[in-house]
Amino acid sequence: MHILRALIRHPSGRIGGAIILLLLIAAICGALGLTPHDPIKAFPPDRLKPPSATYWMGTDLLGRDTASRLMLGIGLSFIVAFASVICATIAGTVIGLFAAWWGRPWDGIFMRTMDVLLAFPAILLALLIISIVGPGPMTSIVAIAIVYTPIFARVVRGPALSLKHREFIDAARTFGSSESYILTRHLLLNLIAPLTVQFTLALAWSLLTEAGLSFLGLGTQPPSPSLGLMLSESRNLMQHAPWLMLFPGLTVMIGVLGFNLTGDALRDILDPRTQERGA
Amino acid sequence: MNHVAQRLLTFPLILWGVSLIVFFSIRLIPGDAITAMLGTEAGLLTPDQRASLARYFGIDQPVHVQYLNWLGGLLHGDLGVSVTFGKPVLDVILQHFPLTLELAILSMIIALVVGVPLGVLAATRNERLSDLVVRILAMLGQSTPNFVLGLLIVFVLSVYFGTVPAMGVFTPITEDLGTNLLQLIFPAITLGFAFAASVMRISRSAMLDVLGDDYVRTAHSKGVSYWGVIWKHALPNALIPVVTISGVEFGYLLGGAVIVEQIFALPGLGRLVLDAVTHRDYALVQGTVLFIAFNFLLVNLIIDLLYVALDPRIRLGNR
Question: What ipTM did this prediction achieve?
Fold first, then answer.
């Protein structure tokens, strides 16, 4: 609770938090069907209408309301972003913790495997996975999760390795605490701070990667809207209907900004060493 | 074991791991390889033709033999044959790589020329208006997806200037420097913007660290001019993390800016992978991904070694 209060007091945290909250509300409304118009059903008589009182963000080539599609798209993009980062956090944490706890040779095997995954640029690894499984939101979740797992493993392994040799861990062992108890109650609890920061920043990257994959036609498939897909669809209509590019583009940008600002604020709050530099 | 030796030893190990992932992931594709390669046309093949093709591509052998053959081929520069291009994969890659390399270099130049001076300016004017402006700019740069910026650039150029960057046919640097730069400058700005933002943040943060060090205070007290201290004493040390981040970003760019190449219709490595995935040209996917990962690892290795050379404080095995 005190982290939330500190986040509200932090200028970047306030702005970032407000952005995320706003987008979440839009996404929830979109998911519950509380949109101004039907986001999927085509309405050709109203095709390519510019923003107006009826259509706040204009309409697309099939006469569908951009604002309604955006609300649904934010939800789909957020689901992929959150699901993939949650999977990456769990997998990375387990790998990092066990690598640090078990030591050699497992540490070497786990971390070199992570190094191998890190040798692929994110979008490329995602493309490789999609070329095997085929496009779609589920594939995007798996691909993005695999891409970001090594980062979480590294974030966890370093501090876990230094914590492993601390006196309180020795004391817990002496008192007969089980291995699982030490790992979850002593090691993991002390890693919540760096994990929280990484989780928030990873959401920004994940949102970007999802939008990028959908933009390439390899993420969410039509007629479901996603931010990247809407941007991709706007390419050929840019000159006649710039609103089709403008609103999804701004939404991705604002969403990434929101997560970046919140991540930075959390880093300031949870790691006071960075506070002085404001880095 | 010292850091340099450790990095040099793990390099081939990781490369081998990469080759395993690339090779076996392609074999995970459901269905047989011939159908995957030829799509619906595979249905027209007679069993004899199918067997002959399987023999030609070496896929009639056990997987581990196929891997060893492929690995052996790799060592001789043989990455297989692209079904789409009807040419050896390595030739296709080398045909597309110069554009990606040039784009990566241009983007890096833009990022460094914009990022370092602004980062230094922000650090020297810490907590003042110019610092705030640079920090906001950096945050915006890091939050703007390159496909949004790329589309915006194309939109502004086409609507307000009545021109679009020449798309489709690419002019190599050796043919016409002017046209080549005109074709690459906007994609390079698109990629360089986020890159510059990272450089800005890192150089500002590193500069702030260095400015608090004793030797900087000593130089000031010895009467060295303010900017003399900044440029001659502080900046060289502050640049070390900038070298690292630039190397990592450069390595990523060498992997091909898939989306930006797609927006500006540039025939680089990124677009090649995307086309290979779309056309299910698996030999090309395999070869290109391996080539990109190799470049990325190599750049990272060079940066690591450079880092040790630049900072004598990094003693062997002390990282």
Answer: 0.84
Give pLDDT tens digits for B10-19: 888 888 998 9
- DSSP-derived secondary structure for B29-65: SSS-HHHHHHGGGGGG--HHHHHHHHHHHTTTS-HHH
CB contact under 8 A, B273 and A127: yes
Half-sphere exposure of B253 (CA within 13 A, CB side): 29
- C-alpha B54/C-alpha A92 separation (Å) is 39
Contact residues on chain A for B152, CB-CB shorter than 8 A = 245, 249
CATH number of A2-278: 1.10.3720.10
Determine whether B223 is exposed, middle or buried from the number of CB atoms within 10 Å of its CB (0-12, 13-18, 19+).
exposed
Look at the pTM and tell me if it is higher than 0.95.
Answer: no
- Looking at the domain that runs over B90-318, which CATH code has it been given? 1.10.3720.10
Which residue in B25, B151, B296 is closest to A249 by CB distance? Answer: B151
Question: Is A58 in a helix, a strand, or coil?
Answer: coil
User: Which residues in chain A are contacts of B201 at CB distance < 8 A?
Assistant: 279
Closest-CA residue to A101 (of A183, A193, A189): A183
> What is the model's pLDDT at position B90?
94
First to last CA, chain A: 25
Q: Do A124 and B273 touch (CB under 8 A)?
A: yes
Parse chain B into domains and list their residue ranges. Answer: 34-78, 90-318
d(CA A93, CA B261): 35
User: Averaged over A120-128, what is the pLDDT?
Assistant: 81
Contact B134, B118 (CB under 8 A): yes
Rounded Cα gap, residues B308 and B40, in angstroms: 54
Res B115: pLDDT: 94
Task: Report yes or no: A66 at the B interface, CB cutoff 8 Å.
Answer: no
